[in-house]
């Protein structure tokens, strides 16, 4: 008989669900309460991290004023890089190394929120290079050595879900790849989600952000289940990404239904506040799901897709460097990835498709492997998304490099419900060149 405790014999499979998310304030006008929340948390000064485009629209100045009206002083850093890198956050930290603040505000898309998380880390615990914290094998996977300061995340996109997760995604400049840092200390103190802040997003940015939500929900819903993994040596060894579980499933299902209902509307009619509200809910819900269950092949492939790009400049983004938006990168291999994972749980893949709007009349598990891929491709086509990796300038000669970059994303690939080898990723990547 197997033991149920940590002493003596260990069970054959993991048994414990660990789930976490920050406090959340959600709704039209919620931004106006940020000063109150900071003051209530005992914060007297903050660094507000945002990007140049938002700064030009005036939102950071308005938010800073709302904060200052509650007696909290504000320093604004408005040069967060779209798709941040280890270099960009290290340079920002060096520039701000003499700044002394009680807390942080991340205002913007996932790039600004992740930059705020990194500045909180690097300014709270100076002297250690970014590479030490990056997930192995790209980095050393070091744990954050102590507490961070309060951080309020205020998303202006409905995409990354970074407001609800304890991780960041960074490009690694000298390796032409992206990876992440996962540590519970990176969790924001508060997610303050106001759908009004997304109304100025161009359609292409709305679409790409929505693809990130879509794949977050699909990947976490189909991830290797938490109780189909070996037990961890100790509680300290349990990762943030524990696999699909009954708690994360609730959030993933809610996110999928909202994406199916509202993503097309939000892209095709940017002023549709109901659709914007639905997608903001979807982004945070998906963050609460994948931030605990994890993602797998599409995100593992997306990191080299973004890291190896040479010339592509996306519509709707004001950037001075080649870039594949994260959501476009993840969705570009999603159809092929879910065709590969389908045999592990046909019922989950079909349920995900149904929540997104697919009609399952007459569909059987034996003949349903193309339903979720077709549903994803339909949403992407209707919203002007990528037709394949060739859109970003890739071709067959790039397959080995893209596969090698994906294989480095160990923490993601262990979440795949099916063991995945280089030959499997070759099939996914090659099959995603065109749809």
What descriptors fit this protein?
two-stranded antiparallel sheet; 2 domains; about 425 residues; alpha/beta; 17 helices; Dehydroquinate synthase-like, alpha domain; Rossmann fold; disordered N terminus; six-stranded parallel sheet
Explain what this protein looks like in three dimensions:
- The protein is of the alpha/beta class and 435 residues long.
- It is built from 17 helices and eight strands.
- The chain has a six-stranded parallel beta sheet, with helices on both faces. It has a two-stranded antiparallel sheet with strand order 6-7.
CATH architecture grouping of the largest domain: Up-down Bundle
CATH homologous superfamily classification of the largest domain: Dehydroquinate synthase-like - alpha domain
Strand percentage lies at 5-15%
Separation, N- and C-terminal Cα atoms: 51 Å
Which class of secondary structure composition applies to the elements?
Answer: alpha/beta
| Average residue pLDDT | 95
How would you sum up the major sheet?
6 strands, parallel
CATH class of the largest domain: Mainly Alpha
Order of secondary-structure elements = EHEHHEHEHHEEEEHHHHHHHHHHH
Number of domains: 2
Query: What's the total helix number?
Result: 17
């Amino acid at each position: 008989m197997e033991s149920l405790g940590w002493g003596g014999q260990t069970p054959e499979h993991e048994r414990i669900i660990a789930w976490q998310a920050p406090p959340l304030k959600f709704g039209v006008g919620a931004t106006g309460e940020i000063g109150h929340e900071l003051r209530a948390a005992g914060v007297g000064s903050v660094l507000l991290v945002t990007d140049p485009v938002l700064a030009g629209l005036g939102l950071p100045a308005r938010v800073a004023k709302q904060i200052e009206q509650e007696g909290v002083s504000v320093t604004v850093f408005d040069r967060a890089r779209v798709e941040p890198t280890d270099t960009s956050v290290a340079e920002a930290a060096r520039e701000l190394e003499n700044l002394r603040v009680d807390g942080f505000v991340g205002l913007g898309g996932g790039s600004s929120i992740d930059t705020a998380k990194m500045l909180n880390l690097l300014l709270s615990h100076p002297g250690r290079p970014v590479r030490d914290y990056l997930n192995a094998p790209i980095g050393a996977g070091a744990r954050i050595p102590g507490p961070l300061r309060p951080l309020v995340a205020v998303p202006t996109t409905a995409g990354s879900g970074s407001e609800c997760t304890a991780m960041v995604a960074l490009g690694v400049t000298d390796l032409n790849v992206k990876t992440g840092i996962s540590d519970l200390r990176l969790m924001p103190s508060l997610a303050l989600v106001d759908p009004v802040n997304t109304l100025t997003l161009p359609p292409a940015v709305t679409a790409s952000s929505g693809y990130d939500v879509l794949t977050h929900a699909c990947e976490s819903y189909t991830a290797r289940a938490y109780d189909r993994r070996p037990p961890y040596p100790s509680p300290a060894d349990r990762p943030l990404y524990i696999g699909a579980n009954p708690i994360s499933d609730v959030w993933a299902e809610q996110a999928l239904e909202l994406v199916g209902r509202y993503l097309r509307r939000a892209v095709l009619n940017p002023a549709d506040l109901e659709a914007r509200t639905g997608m903001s809910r979807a982004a945070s819900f998906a963050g609460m799901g994948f931030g605990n269950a994890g993602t797998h092949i599409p995100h593992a492939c997306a990191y080299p897709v973004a890291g190896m790009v040479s010339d592509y400049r996306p519509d709707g983004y004001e950037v001075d460097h080649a870039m594949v938006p994260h959501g476009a990168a993840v969705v570009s291999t999603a159809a092929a990835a879910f065709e590969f994972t389908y045999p592990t749980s046909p019922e989950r893949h079909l349920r995900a498709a149904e929540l997104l709007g697919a009609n399952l009349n007459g569909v059987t598990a034996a003949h349903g492997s193309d339903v979720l891929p077709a549903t994803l491709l339909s949403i992407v086509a209707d919203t002007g998304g990528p037709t394949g990796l060739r859109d970003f300038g890739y071709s067959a000669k790039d397959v080995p490099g893209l596969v090698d970059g994906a294989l480095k994303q160990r923490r993601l690939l262990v979440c795949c419900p099916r063991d995945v080898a280089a030959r499997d990723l070759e099939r996914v990547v090659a099959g995603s060149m065109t749809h």
